[in-house]
Design brief:
This protein is α+β, with helices and mostly antiparallel strands. The protein has ten helices and twelve strands. A five-stranded mixed β-sheet has the order 10-9-8-11-12. Strands 1-2-3-4 form a four-stranded antiparallel β-sheet, sandwiched between helices. Strand 9 and strand 10 form a beta hairpin. Helix 3 crosses helix 6 and helix 4 runs antiparallel to helix 5. The longest helix has 30 residues. The radius of gyration is 25 Å and the shape is globular.
């Protein structure tokens, strides 16, 4: 009952109100809304996709849902308006935006000449710079977001100055890196490892990212899709024991390898990640195989999704390729990946059983494994700090 209002029942106990519908702010409200929205969209001919519960595919319209934000796509804008009328008739209270520019804080701008989409988050970059104190004065920009050497713990290093909220800045940078700025993903992931015990050197690493963003504030993802073909490419890479010699020798993390990969659909990046491997690899070949397995966990569902999406929008799905960087004995990773399970190579017998699942899928799905030079390996952006020439070359290939 409302505060200050009490009423007893026949048994002498206070009565309570039973809500006929949920209220904003209650813990069960998001769940109730999610049960409500798919039902209403389904009634209007947009069933949930089997591979992604936030994607709804109809005959003429495709909808993507993020919490309570919806974005619609159709070949004809008239179909979207007709769907909006149906949803309002179902009782859904829609608030129409002019375009998709404000969806999740990402500004989407179409080039009138080329038709390419430019996705930017200048507002979020401005907030990051203000928090770091780089928005005023003559703070110099940086050409790369990370140094060449990895960011270590520095247990006995100088304590953090506390001039800004470290975890808040990392949170903003993670959101930025995950949407429109894959070029800072490696640097942000390194800084995020020390969110609860930052040192001065870690604050300086964040400020370096901020200086890089200040120099490249107008950059974002330029979507240049290939015409009439949904081709899928995956670029997995690994940095073998990259922390060795930088972390304390009694810390198991010092021998961990790093996985980095990016998955492209129609030449547009849609998924990327940089993370330390949870297991200790004993060779570059094993580190590359672990990275290959990590990328396959995302690649296979994306393949299924692209297949369904391709049919919905009338585009054929092309060959899927996994392009693996070849340096030192990474040729062994290609050999093992192409070897029919349960066979294995002499150097992989201690971990080959963990690779059977994705090797079987590679064969069943007809995926091509191609050699690619290190200088053209997009996954290299997500495994280590690169010098300016190599970094800018791969950034241009990835982001336009």
């Amino acid at each position: 009952m409302p505060l200050g209002f009490k009423q007893c029942g026949s048994h002498g106990k206070y009565k309570v109100l039973r809500l006929k519908k949920t209220l904003y702010g209650l813990c069960q409200s998001p769940h109730a809304f999610w049960k409500y929205l798919p039902k209403k969209l389904g009634n209007c001919g947009l069933p949930q996709a089997p591979f992604d519960p936030c994607l709804f595919i109809g005959e003429k319209v495709i909808a993507i849902c993020y919490v309570d934000d919806l974005i619609f796509w159709a070949k004809n804008e008239k179909d979207i308006f007709e769907l909006a009328v149906q949803l309002r008739a179902e009782g859904v209270d829609l608030e129409q935006e002019d375009d998709a520019a404000g969806f999740l804080g990402v500004h989407i701008e179409r080039d009138p000449n080329t038709g390419f989409l430019n996705m930017t988050q200048k507002g979020l970059i401005k907030r990051v710079l203000e928090t770091l104190g780089l928005d005023v004065g003559t703070a110099n920009g940086k050409f790369t977001p990370a140094e060449g050497k990895p960011l270590a713990k520095h247990v006995h290093g100088e304590p953090a100055s506390g001039d800004f909220n470290y975890s808040s800045v990392v949170g903003m940078l993670l959101y930025l890196a995950g949407h429109t700025r894959p070029d800072i993903t490696y640097a942000v992931n390194c800084a995020a490892r020390y969110m609860f015990c930052p040192k001065l050197v870690h604050e300086q690493a964040l400020k370096r990212i901020g200086r890089y963003l200040k120099a490249t504030a107008d950059k974002g993802l330029i979507m240049k899709p290939s015409e009439k073909l949904l081709k899928i490419d995956s670029f997995p890479d690994a940095d073998f024991a990259g922390m060795y010699g930088h972390e304390a020798m009694d810390d198991p993390v010092c021998v961990k390898s790093r996985t980095g990969y990016v998955i492209m659909v129609a030449n547009c990046p849609i998924m990327w990640q940089s993370k330390l491997q949870s297991e200790t690899a004993l060779s570059t070949m094993e580190a590359e195989i672990v990275a290959l397995a990590h990328s396959c966990r995302e690649l296979f569902p994306i393949m299924d999704g692209v297949s369904i999406m391709g049919k919905a929008i009338g585009l054929p799905v092309g060959d899927t390729t996994i392009q693996v960087s070849i340096h030192e004995d990474n040729a062994g990773a290609l050999v093992l990946a192409e070897t029919l399970p349960p066979q294995f190579t002499s150097r992989s017998k201690h971990y080959h059983t963990k690779t059977i699942w994705f090797r079987e899928e590679i064969v069943k799905r007809g995926i091509k494994l191609l050699k690619i030079s290190t200088t053209e390996q997009l996954g290299d952006l997500f495994t280590k700090g690169l010098p300016k020439p190599g970094f800018e070359h791969l950034r241009k290939k990835l982001m336009g």
